[in-house]
Amino acid sequence: MKGMTGSTLYEVVAQRVTRLIDSGAYRVGDRVPSVRALSTELKVSITTVLEAYRILENRGLIEPRPQSGYYVRPRPPQPADAPPPPRAPVEPTPVNVIDLSLRLVREGLDPRYVSLGVAYPNPDLLPSEKLSRLLAAASRRSPRMATALDVLPGCPALRVQIARRALLGGCTLSPDEFVTTCGAQEAISLTLRALCRPGDTVAVESPIFFGILQAIELQGLRAVEIDADPKEGMRMEALRAALRRHRVKLVVAIPSFNNPLGSCMPDEKRRELARMLASRDVPFLEDDMVGELHHGTTRPRMVKSYDTRGLVLACGSFSKVLAPGYRVGWLAPGRFQREIQRLKAMSTIATSTPVQMAIAEFLDHGGYDRYLRHVRRVYAANIHALARAVVRSFPTGTSVSWPAGGYVLWVRMPPGVDALLLYERALRAGATIAPGHIFSPRQRFRHFVRLNASTWSPEVDAAIATIGRIAGELARIPAARGTHRT
Amino acid sequence: MKGMTGSTLYEVVAQRVTRLIDSGAYRVGDRVPSVRALSTELKVSITTVLEAYRILENRGLIEPRPQSGYYVRPRPPQPADAPPPPRAPVEPTPVNVIDLSLRLVREGLDPRYVSLGVAYPNPDLLPSEKLSRLLAAASRRSPRMATALDVLPGCPALRVQIARRALLGGCTLSPDEFVTTCGAQEAISLTLRALCRPGDTVAVESPIFFGILQAIELQGLRAVEIDADPKEGMRMEALRAALRRHRVKLVVAIPSFNNPLGSCMPDEKRRELARMLASRDVPFLEDDMVGELHHGTTRPRMVKSYDTRGLVLACGSFSKVLAPGYRVGWLAPGRFQREIQRLKAMSTIATSTPVQMAIAEFLDHGGYDRYLRHVRRVYAANIHALARAVVRSFPTGTSVSWPAGGYVLWVRMPPGVDALLLYERALRAGATIAPGHIFSPRQRFRHFVRLNASTWSPEVDAAIATIGRIAGELARIPAARGTHRT
Questions:
Q1: What residues of chain B lie within 8 A of the CB of A143, using their CB?
Q2: Which of A351, B19, B53, B295 gives a 20 to 30 Å CA spacing to A366?
Q3: Which residue is closest to B137 within chain A, CA to CA?
Q4: Does the model's ipTM exceed the 0.95 cut?
Q5: What is the dihedral of CA A370, A373, A379, A385, to 10 degrees?
Q6: Mutation test of the interface with chain B: which of A133, A190, A349, choosing the one with the most B Cβ atoms within 10 A?
Q7: Which of B183, B186, B352 has its CB closest to that of A355?
Q8: Same domain? A60 vs A99
Q9: How far apart are CA B387 and CA A240, in angstroms?
Q10: Which residue of B has its CA nearest to A118?
């Protein structure tokens, strides 16, 4: 294991141990090799093994016991253990999520509820004071620049930083290959408007973030759903079949920590995807909102890094990580740079200047990497706590996702439990959830819910107990009275 | 003249004197009544007459001569003096301005040129330092609020301030009747997307700001042009005929200081317009970008103030007055509140929080009214200086607008001068202008240019001399070689 950088090496060691656990060599409750033993066996330092074990601990695979060592933890049942959801229809269909999802977001942001319904960062973790100081300093240092229009493609200092971050995802892009946007939602909306006309067909990973589906519906497009594997994301054979069968104008997916599924596409699949798209000349929108919120040590490579023909439009934002209220996102539009800038000029003209300056400073010298290391650990732990609470409270037959990054949990309940009914009753009990309906064009995931895991607190714990109890009651309603239809 | 507030009274006195000049009672070079004499005659104070004369001076009607009094100034020829531009076609037509206008904006914002091509505020006048201090103070005082998502319909403190300002335009609207937007361009874009479907017809004042035409073209709408009178704006009889003849989904105009024309619709026409729209149930987008930049003492009433049925959507922004780079605008969508919020949620989710907080503070206690009084005077004076320079340098047959507010000048050249050709040659000489082509759907105003008058400087003076000289050369090109086509 010579010649590897530290963090890659940690991950390699962590994966070796994971395989040992997965293969059954170590079962729940077993003690894994001691740090010293593993260090000797693999010829790596003690520090390396400790780091690898910390990763596995963050992922909830092992736990330390004082004076004794590390043990394999009980894992909550995973989606892969249970029957898959209904297969996606193979024909493109209209999308129908706008009305429901807008209501859910409105109620999800209402501070009167315990909010598990929106994917919103933990306000206690956000570097709000630091950002505010940097915003203050930047705008007072260059007041004229701060009030001046930030001409397209957007704040040069910020694009430099975004280009540097993209390097970690394997992308060697120049700052000029990015456009800054009013959040990632603008990037998504611009992409769909630039590449598709009403009636066109797009292929979307399923399940997928409802904001993407909203934009598809708004533009009058049809969507063909590509089933996602809970671990590896979009199924390549399903995508291949869809591309063969339909005239697909654009493929959309979240390869790194799909929202809501938590899946992460392996490198080889990303390469294969880029190749498949190139051979058919089909553009791909890579939503990389939480690519930097990996729970392991390394950031996944972006599909964009395998793009040789400018077909991949990668987008992201700082809303899920730094400051939801700043509304700053980005898009690397590949060969569609001109169309995207054109549309942006006519939609919002430019992105707000001072907030871009503040984020550029934070990325440049605000301790962004240290901050990310911290929040990744907390989010990984919170997801695990939430998952365990769900397994404890929800009816038998419930399974939960095992996200490799981000901070949302995807929960499949027994088929009799209608998530929308659960939503209404949870709301009356003072908490919001995101029913699975809004994560597919035709509201397929009716007995699924997505839970926001960014915050773990006694209130959240209590809310999960309540929601689990309600789900249990709904599970006992005879099928004829349930609203399950798939 | 009892019972009037100061500023109304100043305006009344100013208008009396204007009528005397317009009627020929006082001709160019004549001395107008002395301050004392007018004070006695009208039974108003010396101060009132001085204020009224200051207004007339700002408007370029009179000028003081030391130790002697005020004299009627030579006025540049006005559009009303000269033959009107070609009549608007009566049939709706597709719009074709995007490609040209985007290029012009890009080059117009390029700092290498003397920029007369974009309507951009004078950077020396903007309260950049004050705003930056308020931005710094607000975000440091409430860092968590500054990073939090600003949920729809937008920053409450800012909507309170906008509602108060709208009172001055005669609108009694509650803060909840406003939505904040990423600049006025987003408000315009949202309105068109909410109310119209591709192929629909909208009626637009002509000439009109190209950003509106871009949004109309982008959405695949057809436009029927309503000729605007250089003084009073949209011609009511033309609008009435268009509404009778076509199924118009939306009427769009800039009643207060049309960009580029400078016209201001009189109150009685605004009332008539609101009535006409109500009787036919046709919505109206009132672009009020520079309503507060009146050169006289009073802000025009908004058409929205006569709206009894929620049919008027009024929009504006702080980009032309306070901070182009903040990208903060507003929309009072009347009965379309729900549709507008829905679209905004899916396009950009929300407007950036800290910049809204800063503007709210500036409006609340930053001396906004004092600031406005100052810039109005400067802009009125700069327009006048620019108008005189144009009259001096441009070929015979040129006439200029006489804007009652804002900071753009509309120049009509002899029909042989193609504004686009003038644009190209001016660009080579280091200056940008806005050719009239982009201010109507079918590029009707081909021998017109719009000039930005926010800044007056020796460089601008020299640029006008150069552009005027080039225009003179183009005027001498035989018609067959010109590109004039209307």
A1: 128-129, 131-132
A2: A351
A3: A136
A4: no
A5: -120
A6: A349
A7: B352
A8: no
A9: 65
A10: B149
Q: How far is B210 from chain A (nearest CA, A)?
A: 10
- Calpha distance A429→A425 (Å, rounded): 6
Indicate whether A164 and A260 sit together in one domain: yes
Residue from the list B140, B328, B342 with its beta carbon closest to the beta carbon of A132: B140
Same domain, A283 and A205: yes
A331, A326, A332, A333: which is closest to A352 by C-alpha? A326
Q: Which of B147, B211, B215 sits opposite A324 (nearest CB)?
A: B147
Pairwise CA distance, residues B70 & B82, whole Å: 28
Chains A, B: CB contacts within 8 A come to: 193
A144 lies in the same domain as A187: yes
B43/B133 same-domain check:
no
Tens-of-pLDDT digits for all 486 residues of chain A? Answer: 555 666 678 878 887 888 787 767 888 788 999 999 999 989 999 999 998 898 888 777 888 888 889 998 876 555 444 445 667 777 898 999 999 999 999 999 999 999 999 999 999 999 999 999 999 999 999 999 999 999 999 999 999 999 999 999 999 999 999 999 999 999 999 999 999 999 999 999 999 999 999 999 999 999 999 999 999 999 999 999 999 999 999 999 999 999 999 999 999 999 999 999 999 999 999 999 999 999 988 999 999 999 999 999 999 999 999 999 999 999 999 999 999 999 999 999 999 999 999 999 999 999 999 999 999 999 999 999 999 999 999 999 999 998 999 999 999 999 999 999 999 999 999 999 999 999 999 899 999 999 999 999 999 999 999 999 999 999 997 654 444 433
**Contact (Cβ atoms closer than 8 angstroms) between residue B165 and residue B292:** yes
Q: Is residue B238 part of a domain?
A: yes
Q: Which of B72, B87, B111 is the last residue of a domain?
A: B72
| Position B86 in a domain | no
Closest CA to A330 of A152, A143, A115: A152
- CATH classification of the domain holding B109: 3.90.1150.10
Look up residue A329 and give its two tokens.
């996102």
- Looking up residue A60, the CATH number of its domain turns out to be 1.10.10.10
Tell me whether residue A85 is in a domain: no
Residue A97 in tokens: 């999520």
3-state secondary structure of A391: helix
Residue of chain A minimizing CA distance to B151: A109
Q: Model's pTM, two decimal places?
A: 0.86
The residues, any chain, with a CB within 8 Å of residue A229's CB and separated by 6 or more, are A235, A263
Structural domain that includes position A477? 94-124+370-481
Exposure of B407 by Cβ count < 10 A (0-12 exposed, 13-18 middle, 19+ buried)?
buried
Could you tell me if A160 and A289 lie in one domain? yes
Question: Distance (Å) from the C-alpha of residue A328 to the closest C-alpha of chain B?
Answer: 8
Chain B, nearest residue to A109 by Cα: B151
Q: Is B109 part of any domain? A: yes
Among B98, B330, B347, B375, the residue to mutate for chain A (most A Cβ within 10 A)? B347
Closest A-chain CA to B349: A185
Q: Which of A105, A348, A353 sits opposite B348 (nearest CB)?
A: A348
Examine the domain organization and report whether A195 and A244 are in the same domain: yes
- If asked whether residues B382 and B359 sit together in one domain, one would say no
